[in-house]
Amino acid sequence: MKVLFAPAAQYEHLAQVEYYEGQQSGLGTRYLSEMSAAIALIAESPVRFPVVRIPNFRRFVLQDFPYSIVFRVKEEFVEIIAIAGHRREPGYWSRR
Description:
Distance between the termini: 22 Å
CATH superfamily: RelE-like
CATH topology: YaeB-like fold
C-alpha cells in the first residue's frame, strides 16, 4: 500500500534527520534507515498495528529512536500524521 506524509509529519521527519545528523555524523542516516524499514512494514500490513485513538489512528514505535509513527489507513493509501516524540505532549497530533 502506498504511504504518504501529511505536511506536518514531513516537517517533523526532516527536522529529526537534520537534528540527528547535527548531533553525530551518520546518525541521521541511521534514523532514515530505521524510518524506511518502519514505513515498509506499515505499507505491507498497516492494520496489524494497534489503534491508539479512535477512529483509525495507529502507531508504530521505533526501536532505536524515541519516536512513534502515527498513521491512519485510508482506502487507497496510508497517511502518516505525525512523527511523535515520546517526550512531547501526548496526542498533540490529534488536532491534525
